[in-house]
Amino acid sequence: MPSNDGxxxxxRAFRVLIIGGSYGGLAAALTLxxxxxxxxxxxxxxxxxxxxxxxxxxxxxxxDERDGYYHLIGSPKALACEKFASESWTRFRDIPALKSPDIxxxxxxxxxxxxxxxxxxxxxxxxxxxxxxxxxxxxxxxxLRRVFPAVPxxxxxxxxxxxxxxxxxxxxxxRGGVVIIGGGAVGVEMAAELKILxxxxxxxxxxxxxxxxxSEPLPDDFAERVDTILRxxxxxxxxxxxxxxxxxxxxxxxxxxxxxxxxxxxxxxTGRVLSAISRPxxxxxxxxxxxxxxxxxxxxxxxxxxxxxxxxxEHHFAVGDLAAWNGIKRCGSAMxxxxxxxxxxxxxxxxxxGAGKPNFMTLNPFPNVIGLALGHKAVSWTPDQGxxxxxxxxxxxxxxxxxxxxxxxxxxxxx
Length: 415
Ligand SMILES: Cc1cc2nc3c(=O)[nH]c(=O)nc-3n(C[C@H](O)[C@H](O)[C@H](O)COP(=O)(O)OP(=O)(O)OC[C@H]3O[C@@H](n4cnc5c(N)ncnc54)[C@H](O)[C@@H]3O)c2cc1C
Hints:
Layout: E1 14-19, H1 23-36, E2 58-64, E3 68-70, H2 75-78, H3 82-88, E4 89-91, E5 103-114, E6 119-124, E7 130-134, E8 137-140, E9 144-145, H4 157-173, E10 178-181, H5 185-197, E11 203-206, H6 220-233, E12 236-238, E13 243-250, E14 256-262, E15 267-270, E16 272-275, E17 281-282, E18 316-318, H7 331-352, E19 370-374, E20 377-382, E21 386-390, H8 391-398
Parallel strand pairs: 1-2, 1-8, 2-5, 8-18, 10-11, 10-16, 11-12
Antiparallel strand pairs: 3-4, 5-6, 6-7, 9-17, 13-14, 14-15, 19-20, 20-21
Bound molecules: flavin-adenine dinucleotide (FAD).
């Protein structure tokens, strides 16, 4: 029950388990840390927001396969530039905001969740033992599974730095150029970053459709602008061609080369082929199919509580890429959802303890919005402003470091 000193009395701390310590998961964790200490959440954009009425004992556990927070949106640059790679991955234990007795980390992969018993099974990376983790509230924020080279496959910072170094050397030294297959968002960013970072390297982007970004719900003038900028920086763009055959050919024993055959019979030789065509897959296999859409996304209400046919749906939340919500998947949306889920868990706790009705934050549909970093320029599209591009836009959208600094809300210690 609430007490007069602003503390919600409870026999023990409320246990919140968060699966995935990235944009969505960490935003939920830090919102809960702030609210539980009686502070306005650091993610709040409301200048008139009042501190919450009660401090609440909360114990947060974040389970992640990685040993740290990886700035995923900087991946195309991190995998081509060692210095940037080092800044892209911060071990959880080194993030100031997360150094708190209220937060613990488990490095491991969640393999099962029992919503009725409110227990998760986690395969710990270090010991390879499976532990069971009971919780009162669950936030699933484990995003989508993506393959290399869209994202690194290392799970520890030290291994990631090696992976990034090897990859950067590979593309730098590839004899006969680098070919990227797939002109979606990842492919175009990768092509531009490579060409800017290794200008002497020939970079070719091959896409099967008539226009780049063909599967994104965006107008042609956006795709055309991206195409123009890529050609300006020196990327060769080949459209309407599929790679129908890739054969490895030995050049000088050590360095290999690849012979690619395109659908029109054209052939080209290259020193490195990077695939940017695989479709990302939701990481939701640890949940019952009843919680999921047919393609594996978690069904949610606008409060981000599960809306599928599972036990205790009001104690289960999904945020970020994994949530079945409209709009292009973006890290800003993931953080926004994390903020809302953290707030709604706090509200639910208060309501269950008799401290008033829950004042849930509910999500509106997201408009399709996109911002792409293409070397020294960015291109963006919003329903209000249409297509914009330029060097200033790169700075305003991504800063000097692909948005890593602007994500510093995740790093900040609450005041
Ligand atoms: C190359 C690339 C460039 C991008 N560029 C942009 C951009 O410029 N702007 C933008 O807004 N968005 C961009 N995006 C999209 C953006 O990165 C995602 O929308 C965002 O990362 C989603 O955040 P999330 O927290 O939902 O999930 P993620 O960031 O994917 O994090 C999921 C976390 O869960 C962990 N995990 C997964 N499975 C398990 C499991 N079973 N058990 C435990 N942990 C698990 C992972 O290790 C990871 O840390 C880009 C994406 C890519 C791939």
